[in-house]
Structure formats: C-alpha cells, structure tokens
Amino acid sequence: MIENATRVTVIDDLTVSADLAREPTAPLETDSADVQAMMALEAGALADAIARLSLLPRRSWILIASSIERLIETVGEETAERLLAVADQAELAQRPRPHLDW
Q1: Contact 64, 11 (CB under 8 A)
Q2: How far apart are the first and last CA of the chain?
Q3: What confidence tens digit (pLDDT) does each residue in 77-99 have?
Q4: Residues whose CB is less than 8 angstroms from the CB of residue 12 and which lie 6 or more positions away in sequence, other chains included
Q5: CA-based R_g, the chain, Å
Q6: Interatomic CA distance for residues 28 and 36, integer angstroms
Q7: With the CA atoms of 30, 79, 64 and 9 taken in that order, what torsion angle do they form, in degrees rounded to the nearest 10?
C-alpha cells in the first residue's frame, strides 16, 4: 500500500530480478513450480505498485534501476515511458560486486 503521507518513496534495486535472470554468476537450477509462481506474483505486485506510484499527484520518488531496458522489462513499457517522461535521470557508477570464495 502506498500512502500519500510519504514525502519521498525510494525503491532501490527495482530491476534486481531481471538483472539476476540475465546475468547469472553460476549455473542455476530451475526453481520448482511453486517458487516460480511466487516469484511471478511478487514481480507482478511490484510492477503494479510502481504503476500506481507513477500516477499519484505531487509525489516524489527515487527508483534505482540497472538500465532503461531492464526497467521496461520490470514494470512494462507504458509505466516506464510515464516514469521516464517526468523523471530526472542520473547515471551512477556500477556497484562493486562482492567477491565470493566458494
């Protein structure tokens, strides 16, 4: 639920699910059907929340996405176009990836 009382909404790693699906760091096993269904439900809920946020008047928000292409993939083309039409954009340095010794 998005409340109108919040002055600025920050959503970090908006595209993390799309990023992980496109850039696996190791061979991945296929998730069970139940896990896949839950992930799809969560992704749909996130896209819906972002679409609603983009329609609220007099709102400030900060969305952090890895690229415009992944933003479109995550929230849909219509919502991404609406966001990009009014957004100030900044390109940030890529976050360092943690080094894992497994």
Answers
A1: yes
A2: 39
A3: 998 998 888 888 888 777 676 66
A4: 64
A5: 15
A6: 13
A7: -120
Q: Which residues of the chain have pLDDT under 70?
A: 1-6, 20-28, 36, 39, 95, 97-102
Give the tokens for residue 8. Answer: 């600025």
Contact residues for 53 (Cβ-Cβ < 8 A; gap 6+) = 2, 9, 59, 61
39-49 burial code (b ≥16 CB/10 A, e <16):
eeeeeeebbee
- Dig out the tokens for 73 from the structure: 């993939």
Question: Which residue intervals of 6-98 are DSSP H helices?
Answer: 16-22, 33-55, 68-75, 77-86
Strand, coil or helix: what is 9? Answer: strand
Measured CA distances, 63 to 24, 34, 43, 56, 98 (Å): 23, 29, 15, 15, 22
The DSSP call for residue 30 is P
